[in-house]
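Lab notebook page, bench 4
Experiment: in silico fold of construct C2
Operator: M.H.
Input chain length: 69 residues
Purpose: comparison with the prior construct
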Amino acid sequence: MTNTNELKKAIERKGLKNNYLAAQMGVSIGTFSRKLNNKVEFRLSEIKCLWKILELTGEEVNSIFFSQK
C-alpha cells in the first residue's frame, strides 16, 4: 500500500505536478490519480521512475511504496 501523504510531500518538495509525473511514467493522469489514492498499485517500473525523478532515498522508497499502513 502506498503512503499517499508521504508521496504527496515528496512531489511538493520537488515542485512537480501530477500530470508531469504521469507523463514520465507513461500513464494517464486518471491512472496516476488512482495509483496515488491506492485504488491501483504502482508497478515496479513506475516506482523506479518516481524514485529517480523525485530523488528519493532507499528509505523513503520503502516508507512510501511498501508501507504497511
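Observations: The chain has five helices and no strands. The two ends are 7 Å apart (CA to CA).
Next step: discuss at group meeting.
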